[in-house]
Amino acid sequence: MAKKITNQSDDYSQWYHDVIREAKLADNAPVRGSMVIRPNGFALWENMKQALDGMFKETGHENAYFPLFIPKSFLSKEAQHVEGFAKECAVVTHSRLKSVDGGVEVDPESRLEEELIVRPTSETIIWDSYRNWIQSYRDLPILINQWANVVRWELRTRMFLRTMEFLWQEGHTAHATKDEAVEETERMLQVYRTFAEDYMAMPVVTGTKSASERFAGAVETYCIESLMQDNKALQAGTSHFLGQNFAKAFDVKYQSAEGEHEYVWATSWGVSTRLIGGLIMTHSDDQGLVLPPKLAPTQVVIVPIWRDDEQKANVLEYCDGITAELNEHDIKFKLDDREGYNPGRKFAEHEATGIPLRIAVGPRDLENHNVELARRDTLEKNIVDRDGLGNHINELLVNIQDDLYDAAKRRIDENTHHAESYDEFKDIIANKGGFVYAHWDGTAETEEKIKDETKATIRCIPFEGEKEAGECMVTGEPSLQKVLFAKAY
Question: pTM for the full model?
Answer without folding.
Answer: 0.96
